Amino acid sequence: MPAFSSDQMSDIRARFAHVESCPFQGPRIFFENAGGALTLKSVVETSAMFAAIPDNQGRDNPAANALVDLINRAKKDMATFFNPDGGQFFVGESGTELTFRLIRTAVMGSDPVGAVIGSTVEHPASRSAATHWAAMAGKEYICVPHDNAAGSVSAEAYAARMSPDVRVATILHTSPVSGIANDVAAISAAIRLVAPDAYIFVDGIQHASHGHIDIGAYDIDGYVVSPYKVFSRHGYGVAWVSERMTDLPLEQLTDGPRANWEMGTRDTGAYATFSDVVNYLDWLGTHHSDSPDPRARIEAAGAAIHAHEQELAQAMLYGTGNLPGLAELPGVTILGGADNPAREGLVCFALEHIAAADIVSRLNAQCIRTHIRKADHYSGNILTPLGLGSAVRVSLCHYNSLEEVGVFLAAMKEIAA
């Protein structure tokens, strides 16, 4: 039984901007969600409203007080969405900027003698930050190899490289190249078993739009997302940090509030648009749960999103109707393998006889938006070990339909022939 009825799919799609057409290209199918998800119409409206407000927080006037209330409400909404056990949320320039900042704080503020550990599966944001600041601090960087066939890294792989002097660890929740999720809780537990006081950072940027996040279950110290990849807009990132992370020396104004991570005047519109995201997921959850608890409704929405995207991914891999799936095309390589239960709304593939760039171009000519991943500083860590110079990334989200997958497969049947 489909996770979403046809009526619910119509309601879902009606809440997003540019679902079926691009203002520059015209009608198109959007399978480039890993590059940035579609934006909620409510986010567009909220952004416009707050862009016009001249007031700042912290003044003695009604507008300033209202802005502070909106920010505090958004932080409560963030807590509902991420489900942390304490800590605090704040916004920054982008997910990448916040990744660098949290890792820098942990590496430079922790015991000066020790090591930093991360894995080869990670996005260059966390790997670059970790290797750079490990070198600046004179700490060893330990690199955990990922499983090339599975497109992921395991807790066992971390455990094999761990040592008691690890001060900082980085984990990728989901790969934006392979689309395969890693078991954050298990990896965190493996780290804590050997180095219980390590500061653990998680990159949740690719994972956030695909369902369940439960920071309280991970035993970590930092988690970062990019809201433009989870139905909001460009121009800000969201970070959560633990109390013990906040106890480290922070970059902040002299004589300012000790526990403050925020720098400069905050964009109230950024906070407010994240409330729009949480409100949308809460609405979606009401169709799958009768619970009066907002967190339970968020979890129900996440489960439905995951189920729907699994259905789409399976159809993309194994076909629908009389159309063959990608896994059935001759000379195909599916990153992470076709049968991978950890896949989250993304299929990345290559064909032996057709260049990835040509496939992306020919799909675009048929109004199907996908993206090429090249063996460069962004994706070489995943593609090069597989002997691939490039691959086609087809990234799905819960507002995509089975009918759209069928159009894509019909185009690929023609291209592959």
Automatic annotation (TrEMBL):
GO terms for molecular function: transaminase activity. Residues 29-246, 303-406 form the Aminotransferase class V domain. Keywords: Aminotransferase, Pyridoxal phosphate, Transferase. The keyword Endoplasmic reticulum does not apply. This is Aminotransferase class V-fold PLP-dependent enzyme. It comes from Roseobacter insulae. The lineage of its organism: Bacteria, Pseudomonadati, Pseudomonadota, Alphaproteobacteria, Rhodobacterales.
